[in-house]
Design a protein that fits this description.
The complex is a heterotrimer of chains A (622), B (264) and C (102). Chain A has 622 residues and is mostly helical. Chain A contains 16 helices and 2 strands. Chain A has one domain: Cytochrome c oxidase-like, subunit I domain (Cytochrome C Oxidase, Chain A, Up-down Bundle), CATH 1.20.210. By secondary structure, chain C is mainly alpha-helical. In chain C, 76% of the residues lie in helices and 0% in strands. Classes of the chains: A mainly alpha (622), B alpha+beta (264), C mainly alpha (102). Chains B and C meet through α1, α2 and α8 of B and α1, α2 and α3 of C.
Chain lengths: 622, 264, 102
């Protein structure tokens, strides 16, 4: 029996585990190889988790400052305005020169807007949902000792990290960060800050290339691992739904990201080498015709961007659906209702997601035939999504529900995602989208899906798998506090935005709609009422509340690592899936001996059984 | 701790891990180049005029043959390992890498030709345009650069043959002095010249980067990485197979690039 | 794992494919000097020859004719999305009220 190194980050105890028959001798790894440049999927998963949570907080901070400006236009940022002015310069934050000390300037507002979206989607949610949870849990749930390509895994984290650093540093280059929206439409993305070749937009593009590369490497790893490293007895239809969700997510990333990478290279060429991939002939900027060759197509950028952009939203939601499925089954003590339906729906959603993208482009002047095509596929894709939600709802029926923190987040996901999904329907219809496109209605729709949708799923996952990773529970009391206030404030933020959008308030406006308000423009038909404008204030207050509500979570997270209530078994939730068969925390190589799957993944409350759950990993003879 | 199926294939899929991995990666590359080909189609469909005959076909044909040759040699390198002939592997892989270097070298010469070949549009009422070379054969000169360098004229030798193709009057082949004040636009055949050259350079440069990347990996396997032949010959053979698959894909892309860019 | 006897039979096949590829290249260039009446024919012939060459490379050099189902599924899905991306983008340009699509 050889002493085996293991790379957990929380405790330094060694565990002696059989290696899987290799004749390598395992040396004790140094600090750098164990915690920084580790090839262990669990360490990499935790690296992804910590980095993405930091970016989640940073992205929130950006929009909090934007919300301040929207609620109190022209008012200085409290407590930090002067400091920000010194940090970012007078074009970005007002100084004594303009007489508006500490006020966010329009350019900075736009930068924050573009970077909030970019950071939340590509640096926070995807790395957390896919990089962190996918990496940590997937090999465990299929009974594998690690990912198929551990060094590639490490590379994908560090490329992500580099991309993140690049995105962060872009705030400090001449002209500031990218400010043409996370969608980076040409020609605005090329003409903005054109005085400098190496501006924030260029850094955004380079950052995107790095992030896309990281995701591609990860996708190759995930798919290969799931195909090749399922343990004995782990057939495809015995895999937990979480693994299916990650599998579909990986395929989406693999095939949808490259066109955006191509588009990014082309926009980089436009910005740095003066090409005209996306610049039309005769473009006039600042009164002068642009001195470029012309002949390009702004629509080409939109097609390539949204070819990724739409499947990307399923990348955001599928892992969260996978997570809450595990938690709901476990905490109702019932098998998932309609496992096959769930699996085929996830596959179908993934497939259809590739042919709906131009519903983001209804207002670009496309013909009626092609608009109808995309409208049809968009309506079609709502069906499997509803199937998934329905199966999860029905799972609750007749269950013995345990209302612990992960379960609260998981249950809340269902109606919140329901609202998000249903409000997407008027956007998916060509005719109604003409009115709602680029309004706050869109912002409300997608935030409902991602914030009380995906993020709730991810938070649920943190509370649920924390005991496996650390050997301790997070505090239930503070978890429930975190849940209640997050739920209340998220709804207080995004529900009024539906009303603002239906009243016609455009998104991405620095002054919160004041220019089109009844007060400033009384003769404009459809001017925004005072009520609609006043929502800006309540929304901002709710955003502040949401930020405060995360404080107990952050404290709880770090405090519980050292002082949380210790688990008394390797399977503290009495769950059925394979990750609960490992020691806690799992050592390098994950399992003692070779694990096997003897039955399906959700054998809860099996009639005639002595216990209310039959773990997948427990042999019939034991 | 060992990852299973790194060399021995998994029974139900019949595949070893790296083979699944490389095909997945190639699938993503299909989407990458596919997006660029789609862009080519859309840009060309939307263009009023699209130049033809701007690229040297004999050179392109020769380069195509070079790449096809490297494809068979990289395959023979793998076959040699399967037949346990390490010396032949070294030979064939060496030829493959040389072919790759040759391809990139020839491409560089093609690029340089373009960077020193110019089109100038005058601001007369006919919008006369000439194509040709500039005295001193500078790279990347443009009217903007002329302003930055305070150049007031260029000595331009137009191509008799190309003049007609560019849509203007054909030149006489002798050097002419063109004043800066008469120039509406001066551009070498660089990406910024037109969307035609933009997509040409982007497609071929991205392809060339893949050639260089692939050749680097193959060179590693030819050199320091070949010690694995002694310790784990099966795994090494698989690595050559996987590297060869990437190399064939690079050849595949060129099989479409060549006719699309040079011939159509 | 194929033994050296099987492999040597394949060598003849590989060399044959190599020669076919060279011939195909010559034909492609030759077609350039033949002027077809319609754009569709010109593009069609060029792409047909390129497709045949790529089938040879993919099928024989990359062993795709003897590959496993997993690989076929991966590539099949990719081809579908590739065609979808290209086809829908082109359709969007054609189905536009404005005179020139972009």
């Amino acid at each position: 029996m050889q002493p085996t190194k293991h790379a957990t980050h929380h405790d330094h105890a060694h565990s002696h585990a059989h290696s899987h028959g290799g004749d390598h001798h395992h040396e004790e790894l140094g600090f750098w190889q164990k915690y920084i440049f580790s090839t262990d999927h669990k360490v990499i998963g935790i690296q992804y988790a910590l980095t993405s949570l930091i970016f989640l907080l940073f992205g929130f901070f950006l929009v909090a400052l934007m919300r301040w400006q929207l609620a109190y236009p022209g008012k200085a940022i409290p407590f930090g305005g002067a400091f920000l002015a010194k940090l970012l310069g007078p074009e970005m934050v007002g100084t004594e020169v303009s007489g508006k000390v500490g006020v966010i300037m329009p350019d900075l507002y736009n930068s924050f807007g573009a970077m909030h979206g970019t950071i939340m989607v590509f640096l926070a949610i995807v790395p957390l949902a896919f990089g962190a949870f996918g990496n940590f849990v997937t090999p465990l749930q299929i009974g594998a000792p690690d990912m198929a390509f551990p060094r590639l895994n490490m590379a994908s984290y560090w490329v992500y990290f580099l991309g993140g650093v690049g995105m962060f540093c872009s705030f400090f280059v001449p002209g500031g960060a990218a400010k043409s929206g996370w969608t980076s439409y040409s020609p605005l993305a090329t003409v903005t800050d054109a005085a400098w070749d190496f501006n924030g937009q260029t850094m955004w593009l380079i950052g995107m290339v790095l992030l896309i590369t990281s995701s591609l490497l990860g996708a190759v790893n995930f798919i290969t691992t799931i195909i090749q490293l399922r343990t004995k007895g782990m057939s495809w239809m015995r895999m937990p739904f979480f693994v299916w969700a990650q599998f579909v997510t990986a395929f989406i990333l693999l095939l949808a990201f490259p066109p955006l990478e191509a588009a990014g290279v082309m926009q980089l060429m436009d910005n740095v080498f003066d090409t005209s991939f996306f610049l039309p002939t005769g473009l006039v900027v600042g009164g002068k015709t642009m001195d470029v060759s012309g002949g390009g197509s702004p629509l080409l950028w939109q097609h390539l961007f949204w070819f990724l952009g739409h499947p990307e939203v399923y990348v955001l939601i599928l892992p969260a659906m996978g997570i809450i499925s595990e938690i709901i089954s476990n905490n109702t003590r019932r098998p998932l209702w309609g496992y096959k339906t769930l699996v085929y729906s996830a596959l179908t959603v993934g497939f259809i997601s590739f042919i709906v993208w131009a519903h983001h482009m209804y207002l670009t002047g496309m013909g009626t035939k092609i608009s109808t095509f995309f409208q049809t596929t968009t309506m079609m894709i709502s069906i499997p999504s509803v199937f998934i939600l329905t199966c999860l709802f029905i799972t609750l029926w007749g269950g013995s529900i345990r209302f612990n923190t992960p379960m609260l987040f998981a249950i809340a996901f269902l109606p919140m995602f329901g609202i998000g999904g249903l409000t997407g329907l008027p956007l998916g219809f060509n005719a109604s989208d003409i009115y709602l496109h680029d309004t706050y209605y869109v912002i409300a729709h997608f935030h409902y899906v991602v914030a009380p949708g995906t993020i709730f799923g991810l938070l649920a996952g943190i509370y649920y798998w924390f005991p496996k990773a650390t050997g301790r529970f997070m505090s239930e009391f503070w978890g429930k506090v975190h849940f209640v206030f997050s739920l209340i404030f998220m709804n207080a933020i995004f529900a009024p935005m539906f009303l603002q959008g239906m009243a016609g308030m455009s998104r991405r406006m620095y002054d919160g709609g004041a220019t089109y308000s009844l007060e400033k423009a009384p003769d404009v038909i459809g001017a925004l009422s005072a009520t609609v404008i006043k929502y800006n204030i309540s929304i901002t207050h709710a955003a502040l509340g949401l930020g405060l509500a995360q404080i107990p979570f952050i404290i709880n997270f770090f405090w519980s690592i050292k002082f949380g209530k210790k688990v008394t078994s390797d399977n503290p939730w009495d769950a059925t899936t394979l990750e609960w068969a490992t020691p806690t925390p799992p050592p390098h190589g994950n399992f003692i001996g070779e694990p096997a799957a003897y039955r399906g993944p959700y054998e809860y409350s099996v009639p005639g059984s002595s216990s209310d759950f039959l773990p997948q990993f427990k042999s019939d003879r034991a | 701790m060992d990852i299973p199926y790194t060399s021995k294939p998994r029974p139900d899929t019949g595949l070893y891990n790296a083979k699944v991995g490389i095909w997945l990666f190639l699938a993503s590359e299909v989407m990458l180049f596919g997006a660029l080909f789609s862009s080519y189609i859309l840009l060309r469909m939307g263009a009023d005029k699209w130049p033809g005959g701007m690229l040297n076909i004999p050179i392109g044909t020769f380069n195509t043959a070079v790449l096809i040759t490297s494809s068979i040699t990289v395959l023979m390198a793998w076959v040699s390992l399967k037949m346990h002939n390490f010396a032949k592997f070294k030979l064939y892989m060496g030829i493959t890498i040389l072919c790759a270097l040759g391809f990139v070298g020839i491409k560089s010469i093609e690029y340089k030709d373009k960077f020193t070949h110019y089109q100038v549009w005058l601001n007369d009422k006919d919008k006369t345009t000439y194509t040709g070379h500039i005295e001193g054969n500078p790279w990347f000169l443009s009217h903007k650069k002329m302003d930055a360098k305070k150049m007031d004229h260029i000595m331009f030798t137009s191509d008799a043959a190309h003049g007609a193709a560019a849509g203007g009057h054909s030149g006489h082949g002798a050097a002419m002095k063109i004043e800066r004040k008469d120039i509406a636009r001066l551009s070498a055949y660089v990406p910024a010249h037109s969307t035609y050259f933009a997509i040409y350079f982007t497609l071929t440069a991205l392809h060339a980067l893949h050639v260089i990347g692939g050749a680097s990996v193959l060179a590693y396997f030819w050199g320091p990485g070949s010690t694995m032949w002694k310790t784990d010959p099966e795994r090494f053979t698989n690595r050559i197979e996987v590297g060869g698959l990437f190399w064939h894909f690079v050849d595949l892309v060129w099989i479409f690039l060549f006719p699309v860019l040079y011939l159509l | 794992m194929a033994d050296s006897h099987d492999i040597s039979k394949h060598i003849k096949l590989y060399v044959g494919v190599f020669l076919a590829l060279l011939v195909g290249t010559v034909i492609t260039v030759g077609m350039y000097y033949v002027h077809f009446n319609s754009l569709a024919m010109t593009v069609g012939v060029a792409l047909l020859i390129a497709s045949i060459k790529s089938f040879l490379v993919a099928g024989y050099f990359m062993h795709l004719t003897a590959e496993k189902k997993t690989i076929y599924v991966i590539l099949g899905i990719t081809v579908v999305f590739f065609i979808g991306m290209m086809g829908l983008c082109i359709w969007s340009m054609l189905d536009t009220p404005a005179p020139k699509g972009v």
